[in-house]
Amino acid sequence: TEDIFSLIDQMADLGAQRLGIWGGEPLLRDDIGAIIDHARRRDLFTTLDSNGKLVPQRLAELKNLDHMILSLDGRPEHHDAQRGKGSHQQVLEAITAARKIMPVWTITVLTRNNLDDMDYILEESVRLNFVPTFQILHHSEALGTNDELMPTPEEYRRGLAYFCLL
Fold first, then answer.
1. Torsion of CA 148, 77, 52, 70, to 10 degrees
2. Is 18 helix (H, G, I), strand (E, B) or coil?
3. Which of 87, 89, 96 is nearest to 128 (CA)?
4. DSSP E strands: which ranges in 22-154?
5. Of 33, 53, 104, 126, which one has the greatest count of Cβ atoms within 10 A?
């Protein structure tokens, strides 16, 4: 924790204005609340990316976030297929809990499984009051590929054309 505080101090001293906490699942850290609080003391705009599973239990520790970003990959069957059975319901509960104390954004990684779920995501964003964002699936060769999830160029064209029609 002290090493992370030192890194935050160095970043702030060098003029950083924003701290994004992500990678793996940051809510698995016992000290996540202290890290967020330290970033707030250093006047950093602080966000946290999560799968949402631990958000309701850890909400008090997240009060100093500027906003939270939660993974929402589409309709229940598509989200659960990518993130595990029951995870769709967990992320909806996380959105509802977090919205009580902060703005929430979602990120939907577009795959061949969920390109037709954009209306669903947009409707949920209105119902639950979050900002939806969409990301094209990408991986470096070092991280491996997701051939079974990677849309074909034609599938991407169809999915991206959807946004042009809105």
1. 60
2. strand
3. 96
4. 45-50, 67-71, 104-110, 131-136
5. 104
